[in-house]
Amino acid sequence: MNYHxxxxxxxxxxxxxxxxxxxxxxxxxKIKIKFYNPRDFTIASGKGKKQSYSDRRVDDKPYGGxxxxxxxxxxxxxxxxxxxxxxxxxxxxxxxxxxxxxxxFDTTYAKELAVKYTDxxxxxxxxxxxxxxxxxxxxxxxxxxxxxxxxxxxxxAMLLIDSISRQISGVLGDNTSLEENRIACSxxxxxxxxxxxxxxxxxxxxxxxxxxxxxxxxxxxxx
Length: 223
Hints:
The protein is built from 7 helices and 9 strands, in the order E-H-H-E-E-E-H-E-H-E-H-E-H-E-E-H. It is of the alpha/beta class and 223 residues long. The strands form 3 sheets. A 5-stranded parallel beta sheet has the order 2-1-6-5-7. A two-stranded antiparallel sheet has the order 3-4.
C-alpha cells in the first residue's frame, strides 16, 4: 500500500509513523508513505530565484467573508496530480478528502481500501479549509472520523493509515491479532493473577483461568 499525504505540515507525522508497527511495516515494505506539501507547488516568481515565504503562500481570505484563511485550490490540485502521477491503473487509486460533513469512517471502509486499492491519497486541510473546487477536479471520498472538529486533517490521516495498515497481510505479523476477526474483549488481563494496591486485592476473573475456551468465549461475548 502506498500512502500519499497532501499536507502543509508533513513533519507532524514523524513521531507516529516512525515508531512501532507502522515503522516495521515500512521497513518490511508492506507500506510506503510519501508527502506532498502544497507550498512546493506554488508558481515560481522568477527563473532561478529562490522563493520567499510570501512566494510560497497558499492561503487567502474566503470569498463571502468570514474569519480565517482558505487554502488555495491550484497548489493542492497540483500536489494531488503529482501524487496520482501516471499510474496505469487509476482504478487502484483512491483520494480521501477529510471533512466533518463526510461519511463516518469505520473498519468496514478500512478493509475495503486495503483490498481494492494500491494507492491512497489523503488531502489534509487546515485553517478554514481548502477551496472546494479541488473536489471538482478529482473524484474523491469525503470522510469524517467523528462528530467533532479538528484543526487539520493530519490526525485523521494518521488514524486511517493505522487502521488500514492493520488489514494488510503481514503488517501485524499474526492475522489473529485482528480483534474484528475473532471473539475479542475490551477487558484483558495478564500476570500476576492477583494485584495488590493500598491493601486491596484485584483478581483475574476465574473463568479466564479455567482453561475452558467455550466458557471463556461466552464470557467475552457477554462483556
